[in-house]
Amino acid sequence: MSTFRLYFQLGIEHILDLQGFDHILFIIALCALYTLRDWRKVLLLVTAFTLGHSITLALATLNIVRVNSDLIEFLIPVTILITAGTTVFRRQQGFSTGRGYTNYIYATVFGLIHGLGFSNYLRSLLGSGNLLKPLLAFNLGIEVGQILIVGGFLLIAGLLVVVAGVNRREWSLGVSATIAGMAIMLILQNKIW
C-alpha cells in the first residue's frame, strides 16, 4: 500500500473512530442548524474546520508548536459545548441558517484546537523523513470522514424534518442540547480537574 493511501485511510479511520467521538460531536454540533438542502453551507463548514486543524496539525506534528496534551483534551469538549450552546441559546428570530458567520468562525478557530489533538495521534505514527505526503493524506482522509459523518447526519435530519414533519428548530435544539450535555460530561471527566 502506498504511503499516501495508508495515511489517507488512517485519517478516515481516525475521524470515524467511535472511541474518539469528541470530533464527531463537534462536527454534528456545527451542522445541527442545517438539513440536506443546506449541503453547500455544510461543506464550507467542514472545509473551514479542515483548514483550521490542518494548520495546527502540521505545526504540531513538525514540532514547531507544542501544547500540553491535557490542556488540548480539555479544550476540545469546551469547543463542543460552545458550538452546541450557541444553537441552544440562539434567539428564535435569528434561527435562520443564513444569518451570520458564527459557525464558520467556530469551525476554523476551533479546528485549530482539534488539530492539536489530532497531532498527538499522527506524531506517534510518523517517523523521520518527508512528512508532507503523510500530512496531506491524513488531512484529506479526515475531510472525507467528516463528509461521511455530515452526510449521514443531514440525511437523518432531512428525513425527520422534511419527511416526518419534525419542527426544524426543535430538532436543532434537541441535537444541540444533547451534544452540550455530552460535552459537559467530557469536561467533568477530564484529567485537568
Walk me through this protein's architecture.
Keywords: Membrane, Transmembrane, Transmembrane helix. The protein has 193 residues and is an all-alpha fold. It has one domain: Growth Hormone, Chain: A. The protein is built from seven helices and no strands. The chain has helices spanning 3-16, 22-31, 39-61, 69-88, 102-125, 132-163, 168-189. α3 (39-61) crosses α5 (102-125). The longest helix has 32 residues, at 132-163. The model is unreliable at 93-99 (pLDDT under 50).
Radius of gyration: 17 Å
Just name the CATH architecture: Up-down Bundle
**Main sheet, how many strands, which sense, barrel?**
none
Q: What is the number of independent domains? A: 1
The CATH top-level class label: Mainly Alpha
Low-pLDDT runs: 93-99
The CATH topology, please? Answer: Growth Hormone, Chain: A
Helical content class:
over 70%
**N-to-C CA distance:** 43 Å
Beta strand %: under 5%
**Overall spatial form:** globular
User: What is the tally of beta strands?
Assistant: 0
Number of helices: 7
User: How confident is the prediction overall: mean pLDDT?
Assistant: 87
* Order of secondary-structure elements: HHHHHHH
Structural class: mainly alpha
Keywords: Membrane, Transmembrane, Transmembrane helix
Transmembrane segments: 20-36, 43-65, 71-89, 101-122, 142-164, 171-188
Protein name: HupE / UreJ protein
